[in-house]
Amino acid sequence: MDPRLDIAVHLHGQVVMIHPRGLLTVRTAADLRRVLVKELVDHGRVIVDLDGFQLTRESCVTVFPAVLTQCGGWPSAKVALCRPDPAMAQALAARQVSALVPVYHLRLEAEAAIDERPTVVRMRAQLPCDAGAPAMSRRLVRETCPKWQVDDGVEDTAEFVVSELVSNAVEHACTGVGLTLERGPSGLRIAVRDASPVGFPGPVKRSTDPLGRVRGRGLELVRSLTKAWGVDVQPDGNTVWAEIAG
Question: How do 53-55 and 103-104 pair as beta strands?
C-alpha cells in the first residue's frame, strides 16, 4: 500500500467503518478501492469516515461510486461517506458523487441512514453479443426494478425499451453490449453501449427472437413510450439511451 495512505477498518455492528488517512491520489485511490470492494463483498454495508483524508485531484472522488457500481449497486452494496473537509465536500458535489453515495456531516447520521436509497441508484452489466442478450436485459430489468421500488407500469415499459435497444446493438455492432440502468428523481434511464467504430445505423427489422418475443418494432415506439431518447456517437462506440418518467 502507498505510504501516503493509512486505512483503519473495523466492524461496528452490521456496518464496516473505514477510516482512510493521508492523501487521496490516483495511486491511493486504487488501494482504497481494493479495501472497499473487499469489505462490501464480505459485509454489504460500509461507512467511510473522511476526516483527515485530503484531496489532491478532484477526479479521484469518483472511486466511491465506481466501487458501489462494481459491487452491484444499491441495495446489494450500501456505502455512505461522512465528515469530509470543505475541499473534499466541494469535489464530491462537483462530481455529483453525493447523489449516488450519500454524504453526511456526522458519522451517527451516516449510520442511521445507511439503508436508505440514495438519490440516484445505478446498475451496470455486460451482455454477450448473441440472440439471448435481449432476454437477459429484460430479466435484469425485472430483477432490478422491484429493488428500486419502480412502479409496475414503468417496469413494463422499461422491459420493452431495453429489449429494443439491446436488439439493435446485437444486430449492428456484435462487439459485446454494456447495459446501464439508473433511477433518479426524474425517472428511469436506460443506456446501451456498443464498441462499434461505425456510427449508429438505426433500428433493426421486425422479427421474432429464439424465445418467441417480437423484436425490432422500432425506435418510433421507443420514442412514443419515453420522455426522451438519444444517441451519443463516439470514436470507440455508440451509446443509445432512453428516459422513462416515473
Answer: unpaired
